[in-house]
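User: quick one, sequence for these tokens?
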């Protein structure tokens, strides 16, 4: 059974509301869940999203009737060339037919090459991704729309917040966040 971050509020969110309009995660980033994520992210297990997207579809149910587009968190083009795939895009592509929503993969751009977030503190993560994302939307597809941002892991929320800021600056009305896993600090 998927773990829903759902109605639980993290300690940080009690003092500072995130800029996005709602967020959910399917599983905790620990144990077997962590192993699966690492296999997907760094082990070329590109077959996993088709199995995992069902959990995400279930956990994100409250977003689907409000969402116009799914948008995966992008990788910088050089990291994408090294890895050969974006795990967030693979998750979004597997999720799309399950929730009957289109994906926009080249509209949110990671325009700044950032260091790996892996061993950074929350403050360092925010600084690392500050102004790292831009939106290229010449047709105005996003103006006044609601999107669900898709990613594999929600750790401190720094990347999700930076993406949300770029999307809202481009005219997106609401941003929901759906990740496969969430780091939960107790």
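Assistant:
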């Amino acid at each position: 059974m998927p773990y829903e971050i759902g109605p639980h509020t993290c300690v940080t969110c009690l003092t500072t509301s995130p800029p996005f309009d709602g967020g959910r995660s399917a599983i905790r980033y620990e144990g077997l869940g962590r192993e699966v994520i690492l296999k997907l992210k760094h082990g070329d297990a590109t077959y996993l999203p088709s199995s995992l997207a069902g959990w995400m579809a279930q956990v994100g149910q409250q977003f689907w009737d409000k969402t116009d587009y799914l948008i995966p968190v992008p990788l910088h083009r050089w990291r994408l060339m090294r890895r050969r795939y974006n795990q967030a895009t693979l998750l979004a592509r597997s999720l799309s037919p399950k929730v009957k929503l289109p994906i926009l993969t080249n509209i949110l751009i990671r325009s700044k090459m950032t260091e790996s977030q892996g061993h950074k503190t929350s403050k360092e993560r925010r600084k690392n991704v500050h102004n790292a994302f831009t939106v290229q939307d010449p047709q105005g597809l996003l103006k006044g729309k609601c999107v669900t941002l898709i990613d594999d892991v929600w750790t401190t929320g720094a990347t999700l917040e930076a993406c949300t800021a770029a999307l809202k600056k481009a005219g997106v009305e609401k941003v929901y966040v759906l990740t496969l896993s969430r780091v939960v600090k107790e």
